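Morning!

This is the sequence you dropped in the shared folder:
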Amino acid sequence: MQKQESSSLSAVILGLALVLGLASLGYLLGKAAVDVKEYERSVTVKGLSEREFAADVVIWPIQFTEASNDLAGLYRNIETSTDKIRGFLLKNGVTEDEVSVSTPAITDKSAQQYGNNGRAEFRYTATQNVTVYSNNIDNTRKVMSSLSALGKEGIVFTGGNYQAQTEYLFTRLNDIKPAMIEEATRKAREVATKFAEDSNSTLGKIRRASQGQFSIQDRDRNNPHIKKVRVVSTVEYYLSD
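The structure's back. C-alpha cells below.
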C-alpha cells in the first residue's frame, strides 16, 4: 500500500514538472516570437554627401589648321605655327614637360573620290594639335584667355570639334572618400532618428547598408574646372517600441 502511494506521488510530481516545463517553454517561445516580430520592424533611409572641389588636372588641346598646294611648304607652315604656340606657352608660365605635339593629320583633296567635284583652292590641308597637360589650373586658364593674340599672327585655331575640347579632371577621389562616406552615413542616421522619434519608436542597430557610386560632374557649364562630387548611402535600421 505504501509502495502504491509512493508511485502515485512520483507520478503527480512528474506531471507537475511536465506542466511547468511546458509552460516555461511556451513563455520563452512566446517571448522569442514577440522579439522577432519587433525586430522585423525597420526603416530605410538615405544620406547624401555632396561637396565641391577644384579640378587638379587640365588637358588643353590647342588645335590649328594649315592649307597649301605645296606639301613641303605645308609642313614648314605647320612647324612655324607649332613653334609660335610653344614659345607663347613657355613665355606665359607653361613648362616644357607640360607641352606635347601630335603628328599632323594631312588631307589631300585631290585623292578624295567623293564630295564636291569642284576644284578646291588648296590641295593639302592639315590639322595639328599642341596639348597642354598641367596641374596648374589657374595659370593654364589665364593663358587660355590670351591665346587669341596668336590669331593676329595668322594662326587659324579650331575649337568646335570634340578633339579640341578642354577637359578638367579631379583625381583625388580616394583622398576624400572616407570623410564623405562618414558624412553620408551620419546624415542617414539623423533621418532615421527623426523618423523613430516621430513614430514613438526606438532606433536599433543597422540591418543592412549599401553605398552608392561616387559621381563627379561639372558644377555648371560655365565652370567645368569646379567639380561637384556626391555619394548616397542607403541604410536600413531596426525599430522597436
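Headline: Helices lie at 2-39, 71-91, 137-145, 148-151, 173-198.

More detail when I'm at my desk.
O.
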